[in-house]
Specification:
Beta-Lactamase, five-stranded antiparallel β-sheet, Heat Shock Protein 90, 10 helices
Length: 410
């Protein structure tokens, strides 16, 4: 039988337990309230590694992977769930020396569009762990190669007319008493100096266009006016080559951009078509609106361009037919300028060509769509006047002729 003392002790212990449990629960609740919401530091670090643009691999002292990110696969740092042997060997040396080191992790075999130049750095993390971080330098290597080629090409292109002018000048001095010879050599000097001036002018234009952002100040430009001015610039060379340039009817299309640059681009396409077409063959210009872009196509029936050369014709100084280009005085910069003018206008330039049939170059520039005028607001009649039912009047509907399709696709 339970004594009063024992019962009192039991009740007291129960009360103490309840109070103690309440205090513990309240303390735990306060700690949970103070705990910040969101990911932990470890989770953030894992996200950082996985989203890094560099390939990251963590190795243990046995060379096994502990952690890696998807970029490591793309750069070839990880293959078949194993780190590159070069990285593992470098990691062993880093563990021994406890000093970071750089290694070349570039692919041993070039396959497709994979990175060409990958540089890795191996750093010690302590306790036998190392981290290998790989960086893709392929773009920098390609840009450096392009820069070297550009300097070499410019040097060669400038050297040719300068050397010719020097030789012709010596010939003039030697034949100073022969009027006919002086006139003949003088004409050649004029042609070479003109070619040199054209080359320098186009180099300056290309240097301004290349790498520039889309034009900040865009003006409304009439496409028909651009075509007329480009035709005016090309008339002399077309007549000399006995080539007739035809155009479609006026389109009334508008674009947003720089008129001078657009005329330069279209003139270059026309000059290119005339230079690479046989005498008596036709060259045509057509324009139309397609999916919000104005397409200006220049079509010729010239020698055409092989498929493997169609991407390279927009490179600086590249010539599909070097002998013909030399004969016509081309600089090899015209199509490069066209490409950059189109890009700076937010557009592009396309090419269709077939050897022996001809070529069609198409400029695609975003069209300017005039804003529709706002409908006039009708004012309510005064309340004092009785409302009258308006009489119905006939409505006039204007009809216009659609712009013709391109006749350029051969």
């Amino acid at each position: 039988m339970t004594t009063p003392v024992a019962l009192a002790l039991a009740v007291g212990g129960l009360i103490v337990g309840v109070v103690f449990g309440f205090l513990i629960a309240r303390g735990r609740a306060r700690r949970e309230e103070r705990r910040p919401t969101g990911p932990t530091v470890a989770e953030l670090l894992e996200r950082l590694v996985r989203s890094s643009n560099n390939g990251v691999v963590v190795l243990n002292k046995f060379g096994d992977m502990v952690l890696h990110n998807p970029r490591a696969y793309e750069l070839g740092l990880v293959k078949v769930n194993q780190a590159d042997p070069r990285a593992r060997k470098a990691a062993e040396q880093v563990v021994e020396t406890d000093e970071p080191m750089e290694i070349d992790l570039s692919p041993l075999e070039a396959r497709g569009r994979q990175p060409e130049a990958v540089l890795g750095e191996v750093r010690p993390l302590g306790d036998g762990f190392t981290v290998v971080e790989a960086v893709d330098h392929s773009e920098a290597i390609r840009l450096e190669a392009v820069r070297r080629d550009f300097v070499a090409n410019v040097s060669h292109e400038l050297k040719t007319p300068v050397g010719a002018i020097a030789l012709l000048t010596e010939a003039v001095l030697d034949a100073a008493e022969d009027t006919e010879e002086v006139r003949r050599f003088g004409g050649k000097i004029l042609r070479e100096s003109t070619r040199l001036g054209q080359l320098v002018t186009e180099l300056i234009a290309l240097s301004r266009l290349q790498g520039a952002e889309r034009l900040p100040d865009l003006n409304v430009v009439e496409v028909d006016a651009v075509v007329r001015e480009a035709l005016g610039r090309t008339t002399l060379s077309a007549e000399s080559a006995e080539i007739t340039i035809t155009t479609d009817s006026a389109s009334g299309l508008l674009i947003e951009g720089d008129r001078t640059l657009m005329v330069t681009a279209l003139s270059n396409l026309l000059e290119n078509a005339v230079a690479y077409s046989p005498a008596g063959s036709p060259v045509s210009i057509s324009r139309r609106l397609v999916d919000g872009k104005v397409e200006i196509a220049v079509t010729d029936r010239g020698i055409g361009i092989a498929e493997d050369e169609q991407q390279r014709v927009f490179e600086r100084f590249y010539r599909a037919d070097k002998a013909r280009s030399r004969a016509t005085g081309g600089t090899g910069l015209g199509l490069a300028i066209v490409k950059h003018v189109a890009a700076n206008h937010g557009g592009s330039v396309g090419l269709w060509s077939r050897p022996g049939t001809g070529s069609t170059f198409t400029l695609r520039i975003p069209a300017h769509i005039p804003a529709e005028p706002a409908a006039p607001v009708k004012q309510a009649p005064p309340a004092s006047r009785p409302e009258k039912t308006p009489e119905r009047t006939p409505r006039l509907v204007a009809t216009g002729q659609e712009s013709p399709d391109h006749g350029g696709n051969l």
